[in-house]
Design a protein that fits this description.
72% helix; 6 helices; mainly alpha
Length: 90
């Protein structure tokens, strides 16, 4: 397995990259996504994950498709579970 598979970046980092590419503020991006600013901020800072409704919002504004975002979240969640298991075994 590659390092990216073992330790993928939090999906919020990818969303942050998209926001920066567009030259948007977090507040403006939240409006475009139809979510509260604090909801988006929690995602961007890795304190929450991408929910199905957030995945649909990202799809609606043209940032890939909801399946992509759900797979990104699932990959990150799985990597975190593996990390927790490996620290238990050590």
């Amino acid at each position: 397995m590659t390092d990216a598979m073992l330790n993928p970046s939090h999906p919020g980092e990818t969303v942050r990259d998209c926001i920066e590419e567009m030259g948007w503020t977090v507040t403006y991006a939240a409006v475009q996504l139809g979510v509260a600013r604090h909801t988006l901020s929690r995602l961007l800072n890795g304190h929450s994950g991408i929910s199905p409704s957030m995945a649909l919002a990202l799809e609606r504004i043209g940032w890939s498709n909801a399946g992509f975002w759900m797979r990104r979240q699932a990959s990150w969640d799985l990597a975190q579970a593996r990390l927790r298991e490996s620290t238990k075994a050590a």
